[in-house]
Amino acid sequence: MAEKVMATGTDKDYWASQALPSVLKHKLLGQYIPRFGGMTGSRGRHQVVYLDGYAGEGRYESGDRGSAEIAMQVAAHHLEKNALLWNCFFVEQKPDSVARLDLVAAHYRALGVDARVHHGDVDGVLSEVLQVAEGLPLFLFLDPCGLGLPFDRIVQTLNQRRSTPRRWQPTEFLMNFSMDAVRRLGGNARSARGLERSSERFDEACGGRWWREYFRPDEPAEADVDEIVAAQYAQRLREKTGMFVQSVPVARKPGQKAVYHLVFGTRSEHGLWFLGDAVARARDAWWEGLEIKEEQEDPDTLFSATSVVRPDPQEVTDAAVPAMADNMERILHQQKRPFKLLNHTLDVFGAYYGQVTEPAARKAVKLLHSSGRTASTGVGGKTHELVVQPPR
Ligand SMILES: C[S@@+](CC[C@H](N)C(=O)[O-])C[C@H]1O[C@@H](n2cnc3c(N)ncnc32)[C@H](O)[C@@H]1O
Question: Closest residue (by CA) to atom 1 of ligand 1?
């Protein structure tokens, strides 16, 4: 049911080189999935299952890695270290793309990586993946060009994958929620000449007609209505699955509307913690990508526009640390007992979740200590496991 936003004629451009939104997406994926493997695969059978449901070609003509090759590299690395076996499924609908993808996969298969390429619709392969993944950790990466799997199908899959005391099967997902599709289908719904069939497809993707209330015909659309729909979508996933769900907007340029949100879900506090760190790193890569692009387009410029608007990472951290220390003090006050950072990820980072990397949290504990607001020094151990004690 995936709806094509990317016209066939533009596929070639898409695979020529990585566009800026993909820089963020791939950095996030490349940062996070080794963590997922490390966190979940160290238990039990040392095996994880991975599905890239809209895999594309695996590699750009420029040589940059697409999502599929990123996962294959992670799998190869873990295999080489003898740490973990990844069973990787890659599904792609377009014959040309699947042929290119298979060439990339052949290279990794020769290294021993279990890289299975399927030509077809992701929905047709999902059952097989779920079967293989029974009792094993599973990561789902769903990156359609437009609308993806029906909401109900996603929810059913995630709920069927709950862990029980006898069956430990952590499940996480990263999904592309197309904001271009929201705006286009919203416009379609508001128009007297809009197609009902298109709205019905969006109903399926959203799990109901709820989104239509934001795009009533003949009523002016609210500002940022697309963002409201994205937030609602994440909230509905949260409610239906009981998972932590975080939605990361991705734009082409600073100040522009998001082209999509990357919607992440986990039942694990570790997942939530490390995702925030990976998002901050991926945002940095996005800014760097923008600067490089500007330099390539205008090599004679002394100060790129990007260097003027790019937030200085140090300044962001400098602002984040005292704010996070205040957040920690507030948690202490509410809890009235020591707490572990990992158990309060979103409250600890507050507005800086996904903006700053993990070390900012340790700095905040140290700041809290130096101002006499906690007995914890913030020295030693893993940052996410630091325990913040009340002051003595
Ligand atoms: C945005 S591109 C994928 C990019 C890739 N994930 C990456 O990051 O390198 C989406 C891909 O999904 C494929 N596709 C579209 N509908 C599909 C479906 N129902 N099942 C599998 N693949 C599909 C398209 O042909 C296209 O190659």
Answer: 145
CA distance 255 to 180: 16
Residue 179 is part of which domain span?
A: 8-267
Q: Which atom of ligand 1 is nearest to the CA of 141?
A: 6
Tell me the best of 28, 54, 116 to mutate to test the pocket of ligand 1, counting ligand atoms within 8 Å of each CB and taking the most: 54
Judge contact between 250 and 20, C-beta under 8 A.
Answer: no
Q: Which among 267, 291, 316 is the end of a domain?
A: 267
Q: Is 264 helix (H, G, I), strand (E, B) or coil?
A: strand
49 Ramachandran zone, left/alpha/beta (phi>0; psi -120 to 50): beta
Element (H, E) at 340: strand 339-340
Long-range contacts of 96-104 (CB under 8 A, 24+ apart): 96/11, 97/11, 97/15, 97/56, 97/57, 100/15, 100/57, 100/58, 100/59, 101/55, 101/56, 101/57, 101/58, 101/68, 103/58, 104/57, 104/58, 104/59, 104/68, 104/69, 104/72
Q: What is the pLDDT of residues 183-225, one digit of tens each?
A: 999 999 999 999 999 999 999 999 999 999 999 987 887 889 9
Give yes or no: residues 351 and 229 share one domain.
no
Residue 15 Cβ inside 6 Å of ligand 1? The answer reads: no
Enter the pTM of the model. Answer: 0.94
